[in-house]
Amino acid sequence: MREILIDTRELEAPAPMQMVLSHLQSVWEGESYIHQIHRMVPEMLLNRLKGMDYDHIIKKEGDEYHIYIFFKKDRNKIEELIG
To answer: What does the alpha-carbon distance between residue 82 and residue 57 come to, in Å, rounded to a whole number?
Structure first.
């Protein structure tokens, strides 16, 4: 699967959410996912994704949050990829 990496650690709101939302159209079921690196959990973004066909996984590594956004049907594939 193709990773769309978006590093938003240095950006102020609402730029991180806008970047991810604009890249959602590049996510294809079974083919790609978004990997966002952020300094916090993007609650507003995650609330926007509710009710849509997307799911997410959050992993905290040190002071960074790695947010993986993908189609719900791809959850097993993403879990295998990110461990």
So the answer is: 9
Q: How confident is the model at residue 20 (pLDDT cuts 50, 70, 90)?
A: very high
Query: What is the Cα–Cα distance from 80 to 83, expressed in whole angstroms?
Result: 5
6-15 pLDDT tens trace: 999 999 999 9
2-82 belongs to CATH 2.40.30.10? no
Residues in a beta bridge with 68: 35, 57
Domain edges within the chain = 2-82
Which of helix, strand or coil describes residue 12? coil
Tokens of 30: 């079974």
User: Environment class of residue 72 by beta-carbon count within 10 Å: exposed (0-12), middle (13-18) or buried (19+)?
Assistant: exposed
